[in-house]
Amino acid sequence: MVIFKEAAQLGDFLRHKVENNLNIGFIPTMGALHSGHISLVKNAHAQGMFTVCSIFLNPTQFNDKKDYEQYPVSTDADIEMLLQAGCDVLFLPSVEEMYPGGTDKMKTYDFGYLDTILEGANRPGHFKGVGQIVSRLLDIVKPHTLYLGQKDYQQCMVIKKLIEILGLPSLNLVISPTLREQDGLAMSSRNRRLTEPQRALAALLYQCLVSIQTKQAGGNFAIVQKECTDLLIAKGFTPEYVALADANNLQLLSNYDNSVPMITLIAAKIGEIRLIDNILLQ
Ligand code: AMP
């Protein structure tokens, strides 16, 4: 695995690979890697891609400064995991390398409705930062295929829109399923910050999603939504949303609607740690 810290050098190296008929598969991450991230890398590798992973803790997508400062960092262990997974290139840039003119100078993108709901509404400025960094990374790496996780479903939709705005119709997007711990908790870098008692409770988010799916037959989302919210509060969480939406466009649904593909999404804080999860309804 070759490690690059500078954009220009990485760009030159990858251009040479493309000239030699290799397809670039790209997995952007913020590090503190776990098996969920690694599943994306393995997927790219298995699909015959020349696999490029980036680790960059992007300051502009953190609306909460404390969350940024306390985000786990484990670069040495990350490198070891990427080596084992068959990653070809790791891009490990500095903030100055990614925002050469400063974070304020960088172009921003308008995601319209998607930025007004759920994560957009609860994390002002978050998707603006995501748009800035993903557009910069795509410009440097110029991948054929971009690998993202369903865990960040709304982010996947924002990036899909960004690809449209940037006019990159040949860029292929692969969205992989969420990897979970044995008790159902979605793997997340932030899970490392949970205390033992918090960790024991954290699978409740997934249990709520499953109960929203199961109670579809009863046909009253408002009741299930309230049950979940009350249960989360009773167990010491601060829920931000328990939502049901059309999976095609994230239009929020006030009740189950079998005429569209549905997704249920949840965000809640446990102590200082903010967790999100979702499942597609069957
Ligand atoms: P992050 O480092 O949190 O920015 O995540 C980098 C990529 O890994 C994103 O596309 C995430 O959606 C994806 N990812 C994060 N957690 C998981 C998971 N548990 N399973 C699969 N993919 C994940």
From TrEMBL:
| Keyword Ligase among UniProt keywords | yes
State if Cytoplasm is listed as a keyword: yes
- InterPro entries recorded: Pantoate_ligase, Pantoate_ligase_C, Rossmann-like_a/b/a_fold
SUPFAM superfamilies for the chain:
Nucleotidylyl transferase (SSF52374)
In which compartments does the protein localize?
A: Cytoplasm
Pathway-wise, it operates in: Cofactor biosynthesis; (R)-pantothenate biosynthesis; (R)-pantothenate from (R)-pantoate and beta-alanine: step 1/1
Q: Which residues bind (R)-pantoate?
A: Q61, Q155
Task: Keywords in alphabetical order, please.
Answer: ATP-binding, Cytoplasm, Ligase, Nucleotide-binding, Pantothenate biosynthesis
Q: What else is known?
A: The reaction proceeds by a bi uni uni bi ping pong mechanism.
Please explain the role this protein plays, according to its UniProt record: Catalyzes the condensation of pantoate with beta-alanine in an ATP-dependent reaction via a pantoyl-adenylate intermediate.
Q: What is this protein called?
A: Pantothenate synthetase
Q: Which organism is it from?
A: Flavipsychrobacter stenotrophus
Its gene is panC
